[in-house]
């Protein structure tokens, strides 16, 4: 499942403020499972890969950043000049693709539909779509939301190679928004993503370049 969150500009303010998000000694509890402490900062316009083994808590970290999961201790600092959207992408299943995009991205709906090649299903209801098309609708909402911060949990799921390349192209071209991308194939991520974080239940284990990942992670050859 993909989770899409965006921290959008406060339209009432004429000046866009820096959008760094900082986690300080953050611990997260989900049932019997605890993660942390975590300490790192997502800098303005930075693209980051979030890595870790299955079940280590990557999705929980995204939820905590988006203020959708309470943290047990520590602090997540977000600028006052941005607001978080409703968070998990969970539109009304009875809505059509066209209605969903108009609601999510407004005037950018037509461009989002064209970029993600959704015209052929524009009048179909979301509940009738395949996983791949549902994923593309999610990504259309995220990538055209005029967001300061976009968090993507396994966005490649359900995408064919051409669609994955579309996402990579967008990440390479997007200069303003920060992005955190959970992926199990860091060597395939676009070169706009230069920094990687590796987490496990005990906290942050690595914070550095994608070209210097520790074994057994496959390091990307520097361009």
Explain what the structure shows.
The chain is of the alpha/beta class. It folds into two domains: 4-85 and 145-209, Rossmann fold (3-Layer(aba) Sandwich); 91-143, no CATH class. The protein is built from five helices and ten strands. It has helices at 58-65, 97-105, 109-115, 131-143, 161-173, and strands at residues 4-9, 21-30, 33-42, 47-51, 73-77, 82-84, 147-153, 178-182, 195-200, 203-209. Strands 6-1-7-8-4-9-10 form a seven-stranded mixed sheet, sandwiched between helices. Helix 2 crosses helix 3 (109-115), helix 2 (97-105) packs parallel to helix 4 and helix 3 (109-115) crosses helix 4 (131-143). The longest helix is centred in the middle third of the chain and has 13 residues, at 131-143. It is globular. The relative contact order is 0.21. Mean pLDDT is 80; it is low at 1-6, 8-17 and 81-88.
Q: How are the SSEs placed, and which strands pair?
A:
Elements: E1 4-9, E2 21-30, E3 33-42, E4 47-51, H1 58-65, E5 73-77, E6 82-84, H2 97-105, H3 109-115, H4 131-143, E7 147-153, H5 161-173, E8 178-182, E9 195-200, E10 203-209
Parallel strand pairs: 4-8, 4-9, 7-8
Antiparallel strand pairs: 1-6, 1-7, 2-3, 2-5, 9-10
Rough shape? globular
Low-confidence stretches: 1-6, 8-17, 81-88
Strand order within the widest beta sheet? 6-1-7-8-4-9-10
CATH H-level homologous superfamily name of the largest domain: P-loop containing nucleotide triphosphate hydrolases
Number of strands: 10
Q: What is the end-to-end distance?
A: 31 Å
How much β-strand is present in the residues?
Answer: 25-35%
Total discrete domains: 2
Order of helices and strands: EEEEHEEHHHEHEEE
Instruction: Briefly note the CATH topology name of the largest domain.
Output: Rossmann fold
Main β-sheet description: 7 strands, mixed
Q: What Rg is obtained from the alpha carbons, in whole angstroms?
A: 17 Å
Query: In percent, how helical is the residue content?
Result: 10-25%
- Class from helix and strand fractions: alpha/beta
The CATH first-level class of the largest domain comes to: Alpha Beta
What is the architecture of the largest domain at the second tier of CATH? 3-Layer(aba) Sandwich
């Amino acid at each position: 499942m993909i989770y899409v969150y965006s921290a959008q500009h406060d339209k009432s303010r004429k000046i866009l403020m820096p959008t760094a998000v900082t986690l300080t000694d953050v611990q997260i509890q989900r049932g019997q499972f605890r993660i942390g402490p975590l300490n790192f900062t997502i800098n303005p316009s930075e693209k980051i890969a979030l890595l870790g083994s299955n079940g280590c808590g990557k999705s929980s970290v995204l939820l905590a950043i988006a203020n959708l999961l309470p943290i047990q201790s520590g602090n997540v600092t977000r600028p006052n000049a941005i607001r978080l959207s409703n968070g998990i992408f969970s539109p009304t299943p009875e809505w059509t693709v066209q209605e969903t995009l108009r609601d999510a991205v407004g005037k950018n709906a037509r461009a989002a539909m064209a970029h993600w090649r959704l015209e052929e299903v524009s009048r179909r209801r979301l509940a009738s779509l395949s996983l791949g098309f549902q994923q593309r609708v999610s990504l259309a909402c995220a990538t055209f939301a005029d967001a300061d911060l976009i968090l993507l949990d396994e966005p490649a799921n359900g995408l064919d190679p051409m669609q994955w390349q579309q996402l990579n192209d967008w990440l390479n071209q997007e200069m303003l928004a920060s992005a955190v991308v959970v992926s199990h194939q860091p060597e395939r991520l676009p070169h706009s993503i230069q920094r990687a974080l590796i987490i496990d239940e005990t906290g942050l284990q690595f914070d550095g370049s994608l070209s210097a990942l520790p074994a057994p992670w496959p390091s990307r050859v520097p361009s």
